Amino acid sequence: MTTTPQIDPQIDPQCDTLTIGLLSISDRASRGAYEDKGIPALKDWLNQALWNPIVWHQAVIPDEAALITSNLLELVKKGCHLILTTGGTGPAARDVTPEATLAVQGKEMPGFGEQMRQISLHFVATAILSRQVAVIKDQTLIINLPGQPKSIEETLGGLKDPQGAGLVHGIFAAVPYCIDLIGGPYMECKDEFCKAFRPKTALHSKRG
After folding, report:
1. Which residue from 6, 12, 44, 170 lies 20 to 30 Å from 122 (Cα-Cα)?
2. CATH number corresponding to 2-202
């Protein structure tokens, strides 16, 4: 498990600092057979989406259920407010990320998985084979994401028409308010890239 500082210069130091865990789950990437692209794609997207300074915890691990669960629990103990996983959510025998995520014994949040499949079905019929889940463990939101960078971007950001108007909401729009509700820091989105949805009573930005 490695820890890295915020790399995006476009942050606002007035915002709360976030601690985010990124877990890429792949047998081949973990043994160096190919370069992992999931974690770089996640960091790039989140850096574009958020004003907050971020402390990252990240790891690339094989498709082993017990190892996935133990890494998730370690990230929870490290104080991660959000954990995103990539890979291992299909129907193949080695795809065990959903089971390993549920094994942390948190509160399941089925709406995230439902919306991810809804988004992906706009592109491929095989999206119904995806089994992503999300859970809340203590004060941490854990979400399984697909492994391909393009799919990660579509799932987080949603679908837009050629003029840039939203067609289908991405899942990330609901993440900041969820983090609010479980007692986490206030996540500040860059509205032109990804606007968060909060009720008016929950708006209290720290940006000048």
Report:
1. 44
2. 3.40.980.10
Q: Between the CA of residue 122 and those of 115, 147, 158, what are the distances in Å?
A: 11, 17, 10
54 φ/ψ angles, rounded to the nearest 5 degrees: -130, 135
% helix / strand / coil in the chain, to the nearest 5? 35, 20, 45
Q: Please tell me the distance from the alpha carbon of residue 183 to that of residue 161, in angstroms, as a whole number.
A: 35
User: What is the DSSP secondary structure assignment for residue 173, as one 8-state letter?
Assistant: G
Highest mean pLDDT among 19-33, 73-87, 146-160: 73-87
For residue 53, give the 3-state DSSP assignment: coil
- Nearest alpha-carbon partner for 97 in 24, 179, 148: 24
Per DSSP, the residues of 92-160 read STT--HHHHHHTT--EE-HHHHHHHHHHHTTT-GGGGG----EEEETTEEEEEE-SSHHHHHHHHHEEE
User: Which one, of 70, 60, 3, 64, lies nearest residue 32 by Cα?
Assistant: 60
The rounded distance, in Å, linking the Cα atoms of 197 and 34 is 37
What pLDDT does residue 30 have? 83
Where does 26-95 show beta strands of DSSP type E? 54-61, 82-86
Confidence of residue 3 (pLDDT cuts 50, 70, 90): low
Cβ-based neighbours of 15, under 8 Å, separated by 6 or more: 51, 52, 53, 186, 188, 206, 207
Provide the residue ranges of all domains of the chain, joining segments of one domain with +.
2-202
